[in-house]
């Protein structure tokens, strides 16, 4: 085999190039699908973050109400006693 001998014939080279073009076309299609899937994932991720923020706000609001109700329960008796004492003191005078 000499250095000038061709490894492939022109027909074989053409067939290889044609097959590669088909592979590239398939690859471009798969890449387009992948980009679409990534866009959908990013959109879902943004929605999840929005929902997480809303849930955090609702939980914080609920915790605040719970804390306020507990404070009223704990200090309500003392406040009622103080108001009653003030009323009784003012009635004497």
From TrEMBL:
The chain crosses the membrane at residues 71-90. Keywords: Membrane, Transmembrane, Transmembrane helix. This is Uncharacterized protein.
